[in-house]
Design brief:
globular; five-stranded parallel sheet; Rossmann fold; alpha/beta; 194 residues
Length: 194
């Protein structure tokens, strides 16, 4: 059975994690953040070391490792009962980030909508990420060069997913609005889905 899925999409710092956590608190919604899953790895494990090696450079972890981690993690959460695929909607945050990942996930997820947190000014996101680095101790957000590399990686590898999913699935919301307004817009879209 494929998981009924909403994909949270947007540039680094656009608010995917913030919105995902709020949406995931709603009954019958389960938020999965690939970034949180990677950051929770034992830093001394092989996968933990690989994640650190890539993230400190602003690069994406190789697709095969990312898919394996995410599918395994979601499967374990389903077995634990925290996520019930029969009744819950999976909210993916931070995955897929490439066409290869999106294609690999087609066996596992049934994407009902791509909730795209759009942003017309990356400079606003740079400032948002610097504040997040201080507030949350996110070392991957502390170096402006790494942040800019993440934006370039997003433009090169992730943004093409909008075309992959197509206009019928991609619903864009202004990610630079206040978090509450972004949430209102997202809930409006979600409430109209079948």
């Amino acid at each position: 059975m494929k998981y009924r899925t909403l994909v949270l999409f947007g540039a680094p710092g656009s608010g995917k994690g913030t919105q995902g956590k709020v949406l995931g608190a709603i009954p019958n919604m389960f938020h999965f953040s690939s970034g949180d899953a990677f950051r929770s790895l034992d830093p001394n494990s092989d996968l933990g070391k690989t994640f650190k090696e890539y993230s400190t450079k602003g690069l994406l972890v190789p697709d095969e490792l990312t898919i394996r981690l995410c599918v395994d993690h979601i499967g374990k959460v389903a077995k634990s009962g925290k996520f019930n695929p029969a009744t819950d909607t999976l909210i993916l945050d931070g995955i897929p980030r490439s066409l290869t990942q999106a294609k690999a996930l087609q066996e596992t997820v049934d994407v009902k909508a791509v909730l795209n947190l759009g942003c017309s000014n990356f400079e606003d996101l740079v400032q948002r990420m610097k504040k997040r680095a201080i507030k949350e101790g996110r070392t991957d957000d502390a170096d402006e060069n790494v942040i800019r590399e993440r934006f370039q990686t997003y433009e090169r590898q992730t943004k093409p997913l909008i075309d992959f999913y197509g206009a019928s699935l991609v619903k864009t919301v202004d990610g630079l609005q206040t978090p509450i307004k972004v949430l209102q817009d997202l809930l409006d879209i979600i409430s109209k889905l079948k």
